[in-house]
């Protein structure tokens, strides 16, 4: 009896690991077989008898990709016919998403009346040419508030990164005013400018004029921050250019680099360089996608007059100018064609508010 117990213990000791390995290999083989079967393959339905619809209520997590194994378990509990496509909250449709369009984008929450000296907000909803809402930000908008008497201010645009934008205006005068909103660039153009054009060498080209006595020479100049270069005239100034250097080709007639007398734009070369940098992207810089006012603007609002004391009280709340001050929602406004009123800060001298 004792020998039998010892042999049984030895059998269990050696047999259990072997059985565990066999079970693991079998489970792996089944998993690989299931994994090789695509979701919409008829063989899946024949093998697992999937004849029921998978509804959102039965689907445990809407963001999981269905496969033959988990679909089999869910379908057993749900009656009804087989549903096409992915179950749960997955949407199935065919559509197009275009660039932000000035024709379909809208301006909303425009108040009929505001008070002089009041900050107010309007909303921009970006839409593409198919009138589909854009679900991303990054568009470049320019918004202005103007009056016939020369009053003018720019709106502060805040991007909510979901296709909507808040625009804040300060009403610095009374009377009727117009709100204009211009789509300067859609977000795709902004991305191209920031990540491609901005990092390109020699975006702007100048002409350097060298003179000494009767000798004159004109050469090409560019700005560079890093090398390499060879045999160039280097013009630098730590307070004007920082680490950037103006490089000019060597002048002719034996003129030296310090004989430079003027630098001016090479407009012909600038236009050529712009064409090179925008090759294949011309549609982003012309037509419907470049500097177009929204179709439903201008919007007209009425700015009610306020008392002089209220306006003076508001102006006295503007902080005194200090370094590194935060940027306000409105930097200021033109009261007329000649008078600028700053809302960012005021000088330490007594301010004339009249």
From TrEMBL:
What InterPro entries does the annotation carry?
A: Ig-like_fold (IPR013783), Ig_E-set (IPR014756), NXPH/NXPE (IPR026845)
**Name used for this protein in its record:** NXPE family member 1-like
Pfam families in the record, alphabetically?
A: Neurexophilin
Q: Which organism is it from?
A: Acanthaster planci (Crown-of-thorns starfish)
